Amino acid sequence: MLEGLDLGNNEVKWIVTETDPMLADELAVQAGVPRVIARLLINRGIRTVEQAKAFLNPSTSDLHDPFLLPDLEAGVKRLAQAVESGEKICIHGDYDVDGITSAAVLVRTLRALKANVSHRLPHRHREGYGIKPVAVEEALEKGVSLIVTCDCGITACETVEFANECGIDVIVTDHHEQGAELPRAVAVVNPKRHDADYPFPELAGVGVALKLAQALVRYFGYNEDSFISKFVDLAALGTVADVVPLLGENRIIVKYGLEAIPKSRKVGLQTMLKSAGLLGKSLTTHSLGFILGPRINAVGRMDDASVALRLLLTNDEQEAWALSCEMESLNRERRVEQERIMAQALEQVHSKDLSSVRVLVLSAEGWNTGVIGVVAGKICDTYNRPTIMISRDEEIGIGSGSARSISSFSIIEGLRRCADLLEGFGGHAQAAGLALRLDKLNAFEERINAICAEVIPEERLIPSIEADAELSPDEINDELAESLLAMEPFGEGNAEPLFITRGLKVIEKRKVGDGSHLKLWLQGESRSSMECIAFGLGDKYNSLELGTLVDLCYHVRHNIFNGSRSIQLVGKAIREHA
Fold first, then answer.
1. Whether residue 10 has pLDDT greater than 90
2. How far apart are CA 497 and CA 555, in angstroms?
């Protein structure tokens, strides 16, 4: 969230998370970890030795039994029946990374079981999110008797009812919030169902699909451990890209998936790694969330997401390379479109009085609905305000929008309170989609701002950096850097630890890259210099005189160069020491 932003100004608050020191001391002793690691664990809600060991040493053996999911047994029985009798099965995914990887997991599993399976993804611009009646009509024409949704379907009551009337059974697998009622499907497999007792409700859509496939593998008597090892690569990619908390089962999936992807035998994954310049490199959640994920998403944002699904399903290297090239081209188009929309959106932001605006509602004719969500997220992060971007269709008088929010305001709850002004909406606390008539846009903007004002006082809109701990220079050492490796993978719900150290002396400085980045050598009172790279903070160069004392907010990482390993600080913000 802070990446590439100049947050070292006086308007940004620096906050250190308060942690019970006695609890940290106790956990450090009992778990056998450094005190700072104990503090980090407590900051993430981990307070017992058992929780600490499970977090620091995740194992696939800790994954929950898939049959704990609601309706899973009914879903497996119906799917197995279709496999055994040769019925035509259609896997219906979604156009984002989570929906595409979910579909890939199920299609590949069913193909391995010799099922008669096809796949379908909705077109973002022609159909919008989820399964629609047109998908059922197509299935009917093709003689499909069973549709399995993934990453969608939990609110598709009317479409499922239509399928029932057509004699087509539906199994819903999803992870989104349910509506007032569940669709009348053969099975509705969702850990967030109101009646669910599943121990970990935060699975991504691909996690739910993985569970269904695992249970099907068990039904047919195949090795489940082997199955998990072969499909955790796709599951990790979808899980990271969907920005679900990297705790519990998600943490296990991503940890092992990051190890599996470089060795994956899936031609499409290897081709993507090559085209993205990641082949042979150690992967992190950043690799999945900010390099591979956007490439897959770009296909659905700009055109037909099925290109990405075909890439993840193909076993033909020539086809994989052609599809990967098409993906790269669409990703370049997405970047250009994103920059154009960002410039127009920022013009609107600058025209507003931010002292009186809680929610930024921005709109324009012709904004690409596949891109505005990304732009809304960047603006939300920059201005620390919920942001709603609406693409206007003046001809029909309808606006289609994407919303992103800050942690202290649930955008989906805000939209619920505006339901009478909207044509439709759905999503999560921090990300949602909506549609409304343009003649109600002004009333909507006024109401959503009033609702936000009830919830968030003005002072909480001031951008802030929340660090995990304040360290002395002596605490920044090899042991700390090594211990932090056990905290990986980092991501939503387990952010990379952020530290503050005050009173460091600037002994050398240099602009690097294209001049927008800053490299510093800093020194504490009782130790040699430490290297710091600060991305996006090159404009601080002139204000940091040699010998100046500064406060630094940073990550601690190991830097390996020419086979030599050293500690490197990755600066996120810097300011003069008071």
1. no
2. 6
